Amino acid sequence: MSDLFRMLRTAAHSLETQRYALDVTGQNIANVNTQGYVRRTIDFAEIPPQDPWSAGGGVDIAAVQAARAPLIEGRLRYEQVLSAHDSAIADHLEVVLGALGQPGASLDAALTRFYTTYGALASNPTSAPARQQVLVEAQALATAFRDISTQLQNARAAADQELRNTLTEINALAAELAELNAGISGSAGANVEALHDRQAVVLSRLSALADIDVIHRADGALDVAIGNGRALVVGDRHYDLTAAGTPPLGFANILTNGADVTTDITSEITGGRIGALLQIRDTTVPSYQQQLDQLAHGIVTDVNALTTSGFDLDGNAGLELFNPLAGVAGAAAGITVNAAVAGNVRRVVAAGTSASGNNDVARAIAALQDSAVSGGSARPVAAWGALVSRIATDARGAKDAAAVHDDVVQQLRTLRDQVSGVSIDEEAAMLMRFQRSYEANARFFQVADRALEQLMNLVS
Amino acid sequence: MATHPDPLIEKVERLCETLERIGDALVSVDADALLETEETLARLLATFDADSSQRVADSAALKERVLRARAALLRCRRLGSCFTSVAGARLRTRSGMMLYGPAGGFVEHGVSGASVKVAT
Lengths: 460, 120
What we know:
The structure holds 2 protein chains of 2 kinds. By secondary structure, chain A is an alpha+beta fold. Chain A has 12 helices and 9 strands. In chain A, the strands form 3 sheets. A 4-stranded antiparallel beta sheet of chain A has the order 3-4-5-6, with helices on one face. In chain A, strand 3 (about 210-215) and strand 4 (about 220-225) form a beta hairpin. Chain A starts with a helix and ends with a helix. The mean pLDDT of chain A is about 90. Chain B has 5 helices and no strands. In chain B, helix 1 runs parallel beside helix 4. At the A-B interface, helix 2, helix 10, helix 11 and helix 12 of A face helix 1, helix 2 and helix 4 of B.
């Protein structure tokens, strides 16, 4: 009789085991679109016979495992840092590029009009309307320089503001990670896999924001370091990053107070979105500003040198058309028309001698548009074009690089999904088949490279 | 699909498309799609030497396509290199198998998909 009960118990337990397996499958299907969810697999184990007269106790569940791929996850994090960095650079440079205005309707137009009005003044050097027009265009040119300088400064300020917001985001993610660590260390059973899923999602978001180092603990928790190994998350503790405004512009430096010592780690962060924002704010846009300042300074220097060498309509020694600049730095933001000239059209300098009707200076200034600007090697409009082209090239380069990184991230995600949870043999077969398919194409890459090189020589 | 009247430009256009298809197949880890492109790529490249000595009327159009093809080739190499490094590391750690030998050549393993297929 007891054997009959044992058989019934075995059958019931086996059915219960299979029901659980179906539950897990259902959970896998239900969460197919859940971010971070990793497919669960079940390890079945035979229940051994208790005596020589028994075939066995049926089947039991030895373990439910999440099909994780830590190696691919690590590579994915690495690529996400690069992808986020280039995307942020591309996004910000697109905004900068848009702020510069359309070709023919921006600083290039103001420059052309300015020099053209001097050409008109040279045709009629005593004309009051022609002199007035020179002042109007000089004011317009100064305003155009100042506006573009402001736009570039705004781009830096926008990057700074986004940097501060990103720090808040990092702190929130670090806090969540610390909480997850506490949960993972202190829990056992099926729920821990759900915590690991969430941990992977948080880590993925964090790695897009900054270049981080991850150290896995034996209990499944993980520590995260930022910059040169600065603690961000250690077990169930997290160390907030703070933004500290620094003079002269009030832009934020990044501080950490790990181990109770506040350290400035701004220069240590180069990757991810934060690295990109720092690059935009502190390196890329300032280099554009410097180029714009150089152009503004060169134009002011050249024009003032000519006006101070000439004479106004009343035969007085010529004044500077633009107020002298202190130096190259800040020239575009500080360019203004000399009020003494702006208030009296007779003060506009057209003559190279005190003789009435002379137009030497007006002609010389009009001719400046065809000669290299002081301190540079290009004509004024071409120098402006070079700056716009440089920004466009930088933006395009960052966009292209981001697209490639996005492709790699997508490839790794697909690869992770394909290899997770399959047997070693199946995975090896899949990887090698794909590798051979790739090799079949890759052996032609060098030939393609040579052919494209030859064609490039044909057209360049 | 619109074709260009200049046969050389048309060929470069097709090379671009093929390289872009290879890139897409690498992104989606699709071995079948990769195998399909191999023959097209080989056939296209075989005709290039003869064509490249031709004069091109629309050099701007050719340049644009050559640059596009170069970008597509770079993308393929980048994706291929990423896959190779990840797959190589995974094979080594999971199964002890090597993808590339000491001389850098691909290591042939006698594994066929059908013989190792596991019924689950």
